[in-house]
Design a protein that fits this description.
Layout lengths: L1 H30 L3 E11 L7 E6 L21 E4 H15 L4 E6 L6 H13 L3 E6 L6 H10 L2 E5 L5 H8 L4 H13 L3 E7 L7 H11 L5 E8 L5 H6 L14 H12 L5 E3 L1
Parallel strand pairs: 2-4, 4-5, 5-6, 6-7, 7-8, 8-9
Antiparallel strand pairs: 1-2, 1-3
Helix pairs in contact: 2-3, 3-4
Bound molecules: iron/sulfur cluster.
Iron/sulfur cluster (SF4) binds next to loops.
């Protein structure tokens, strides 16, 4: 009898303690706030979307563009983890400087690699009335990205690296299809998008491909403008620091004529064209 009682107590303890522990685990899981891996933060960005912006540069990118001027953002390793609420607090502190147009931009690296953790960040920023913008190469279009695009991203700045598949692969190591599919999805969400295009002499300034790009996107209703980004060599020393060979060493920066020519071509297709 006594033996049976002890057995019953053991049984009771086993199941209840186990149940309590697993409940604790769930609660802890719920209480774990998502974090973002960030390379660096800029408080007064003026080139990453409308107005004055706080820019979070996220760590990691699946492209490896030959001209990347922040190659240290490419590896997934590195960066620092930030709590979402910490980032929201920083943005709130800057709100007075944002004015009507400014806000927060997530850039990188490729921010959408961390799209799941970006949802609570953007949700909180929207609750605080802060404008949100994603600067992306369009590589990641998963279920989390779609939530961001449909519900929380006021603006998307999509980098188009090249119209031609072969040249795109040479420049980035990836297919152009990701970015083009991404553009299609944003178009369906009917929310604002800007295109960005780095003009690399001899690599991405072929007139026929600039026209083809214009033709492809000219009927998109969501594209408010296209920005031409001149090619520059500011990141070369970072490539050397990382022990990577910089393959565009012999490529000169753009002449004003090259920029003007690309601008004139894009003006045939887009409402607004800006050379950054
Ligand atoms: S997409 Fe941007 S961050 Fe990634 S490699 Fe290209 S330039 Fe660098």
């Amino acid at each position: 009898m006594l033996y049976n009682k002890i057995k019953a107590e053991k049984f009771f303890r086993y199941f209840f303690v186990k149940k309590i522990n697993s409940k604790k685990k769930i609660i802890n899981k719920k209480m774990t706030t998502p974090k973002l891996k960030i390379h660096s933060i800029e408080s007064f960005g003026t080139h990453d979307g409308p107005g004055i912006r706080m820019v979070f540069f996220l760590q990691g990118c699946k492209f490896k563009c030959l001209y990347c001027h922040n190659p240290d953002t490419i590896p997934m390793e590195g960066g620092h983890e930030y709590e979402i609420e910490d980032l929201v607090r920083r943005a709130i502190n800057m709100k007075g400087y944002f004015g009507e147009k400014g806000g927060v931009t997530v850039s990188g690296g490729e921010p959408l690699i961390q799209s799941k953790a970006l949802i609570p960040l953007f949700k909180r920023l929207k609750e605080e009335g802060i404008h949100t913008n994603i600067d992306t190469n369009g590589r990641v279009l998963n279920e989390h990205t779609k939530v961001l695009l449909d519900e929380y991203a006021d603006l998307v700045m999509l980098d188009i690296k090249h119209f031609d598949e072969e040249w795109h692969k040479k420049l980035t190591g990836m297919s152009r299809d990701y970015s083009f599919r991404f553009a299609e999805y944003r178009e369906r969400s009917q929310k604002p998008m800007w295109l960005r295009y780095v003009l690399v002499p001899g690599w991405s300034d072929q007139e026929n491909f600039l026209h083809a790009l214009g033709q492809h996107f000219k009927d998109y209703k969501t594209i408010e403008k296209i920005e031409i980004q001149p090619y520059h060599k500011l990141g070369i020393h970072k490539w050397e620091t990382m022990g990577w060979e910089y393959q565009l060493k012999g490529v000169p920066e753009n002449t004003p004529e090259q920029l003007a020519k690309a601008e004139a071509i894009f003006k045939q297709y887009f409402k607004q064209v800006k050379v950054n």
